[in-house]
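Quick illustration, no need to memorize.
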Amino acid sequence: MSNDPLYRSIHSKLPEGTSDAVAMHATVEAKRAGIVDVNQLRSVTVHDGSAWIVGNTPGFRTKVDLAAEAPSLQESQQQLRTLDAQRAQPEMTAQTPTRVI
């Protein structure tokens, strides 16, 4: 569905039959929690119908209800693009050389 390695990793750890829309929503929530790269993903644990997505950095975690209605794939993909753009914006600003006179 998505070429995003984080999405693929999260989806592979969710129960068999989990829809692409739910997996994409879980990826959006992980990125909102600060887990923006597959290398930052520590674990995905499913318990009582919820997926706990935990990052390597203490405090970077989120809980996703797997039974709740997830946003459409298109909506989640748009949210991912927005989050990625917001994350890239400060990086671009930081790389801009400044000249002190």
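The chain has one domain: 5-95.
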